[in-house]
Amino acid sequence: MRRYPLIVAIDETSCDKALFSLASSISPIVSGFKVGIPTLISCGLGFLKELRSAANGAFLIADLKLADIGDVMVKTTSLVKDYVDAVIAHAFVGREGALDALVDSIRKWDLKLILVASMSHAGSLEFYDADLDRVLGLVRELAPWGVVAPATRPEVIKRVRIELDGVKIVSPGVGAQGARPGDAICAGADYEIIGRAILGSKDPLGAAVQAGEAASRCQAQRL
Amino acid sequence: MRRYPLIVAIDETSCDKALFSLASSISPIVSGFKVGIPTLISCGLGFLKELRSAANGAFLIADLKLADIGDVMVKTTSLVKDYVDAVIAHAFVGREGALDALVDSIRKWDLKLILVASMSHAGSLEFYDADLDRVLGLVRELAPWGVVAPATRPEVIKRVRIELDGVKIVSPGVGAQGARPGDAICAGADYEIIGRAILGSKDPLGAAVQAGEAASRCQAQRL
Is the pLDDT of residue B2 over 90? Predict the structure, then answer.
């Protein structure tokens, strides 16, 4: 069966084992899972290990939102490298002494790097979007597997799609933050990140199918 | 006895109990400890609890380098709020939907906020320092307890000192990253962050005294 272009965001802090059976039930139809810092601090690295077995081949992203000097970002990534396929880092920390070192380690470990190019909240306009030209210039130089661009501002996704050929676009902001399922894919994204709208639903599988179908319709329109 | 204006950075991932007796031995003469994300993910929240007992009244900072939407930053901070005095967040995520929510929770929890205004590596020039005017404008609006400004670029510390009255300046980059103990305090910082030069020394107490004396001489010159 074909997987929907959805990535399920996990930010739980209860470390409840029920999450793994839930993840297991939706994993055949979604593309991946993204695990946030709150979960990693609360539940530790064992959580990623268990999620890996529940994920049925869906990819795993450690959403570390790395934003430090190179040494610290490399050290943090080294902790999760055996359990995930990709990590997320901020473009804003710049290249020299930061992302250059991270990119080297990421290549060595055969991981995928996803760089934040713009965020889903309004405050992203204050710095990130104001610097979007230079941010996209840095992304072009570093050639990561993917970038984060917000479902809440499709015009940013469109611009990233035009300017960065071949880079995957991963879009948060769907559901609780206001974007509708499909909005980001229609604008040119490759994956939509959905958290609460699936994991908080009474029928998570049904919610995933519904969001996935909306996203797939947009994919079809773009072909 | 008077405490030196030093904050000891802990980024260990071995979770070795020996660290607590080391921390205990230097805690009477330093101002605080700063615990990074690698340690928090590896060792969990129990580490902060134990460090608190070893700290002899020195303050504790969770160096979360928060850089996310408001909800996630608040959730992450809620995990550490009972064990630390302060958390570090990035200014570049902006106010609306991000730092505004964090500031509200930080006040409610009676914690101190430290905002990154500039970083110690060269890549900080690419975005952070290029936006320094606007970053300092945001810091002025949000009125945090402190800001991070780099010991490696004293001219940035001087500017922050002139433009932000009453805000504490906390400076990383001393030791392994190239700045000498005292450089940041001489330029106007309130605390210097030192990690490996103390924790990696054969005589951590002696190393702390030596760095502390250099910093104190600068404090005396400024009075």
Answer: no
Question: What is the structure's pLDDT at A167?
Answer: 97
Instruction: Round to whole Å and give the CA distance between B124 and B90.
Output: 12
Active-site residue, B65 included: yes
Q: What is the ipTM of this complex?
A: 0.96
What pairs with residue B168 in β-bridges? B146
Closest chain A C-alpha to B100 CA, distance in angstroms: 9
**Residues sharing a CB contact under 8 Å with residue B80, sequence separation 6 or more, in sequence order:** A41, B40, B45, B48, B62, B64, B87
Instruction: Kindly list the distances between the CA atom of residue B177 and the CA atoms of A68, A95, A128, B173, B203, in Å, as whole numbers in the listed order.
Output: 13, 16, 27, 5, 20
Q: Are strands A191-194 and B30-36 parallel, antiparallel or unpaired?
A: unpaired
Best probe of the A interface among B37, B43, B100, by most A CBs < 10 A, is: B37
**Rounded distance between C-alpha atoms, residue B45 and residue B30, angstroms:** 22
- In this prediction, residue A1 carries a pLDDT of 65
When CB atoms are compared, the residue of B45, B80, B127 closest to A134 is B127
Q: Which residues of B touch A11 (CB under 8 A)?
A: 72, 75
Task: Give tens-digit pLDDT for B26-44.
Answer: 999 999 999 999 999 999 9
Q: Which residue carries 């880079």 as its tokens?
A: A167
